[in-house]
Amino acid sequence: MKNVDVELYMNQFITFFEKNPNDLLDLIGDSEKDLFYDKVRQRCVQNYENGDDITLTNRQIMEIILEMKNGEIPHKVHKLFEKTKYGYFGLN
Predict the structure, then answer these.
(1) What three-state secondary structure class fits 88?
(2) Using alpha carbons only, how large is the chain's radius of gyration in Å?
């Protein structure tokens, strides 16, 4: 059974990237967008089932991207984060 809130969120999520295709390319690179959307939907459902907000956090989106890239950090992400002995540090 589909959750209406998840479907509304996904429609907005997909519409944003349809209107901003370069942002999607920057985010997932050459990965399959349908796979990305499926993983986002799965995470939204998981959030809902856990009683959390269905809206994904930046961290959850990055986890999906890293999972799709087999743990490789995309080049653009290296510019945003500085690797230290304590892990990655955001420079924003």
Answers:
(1) strand
(2) 14
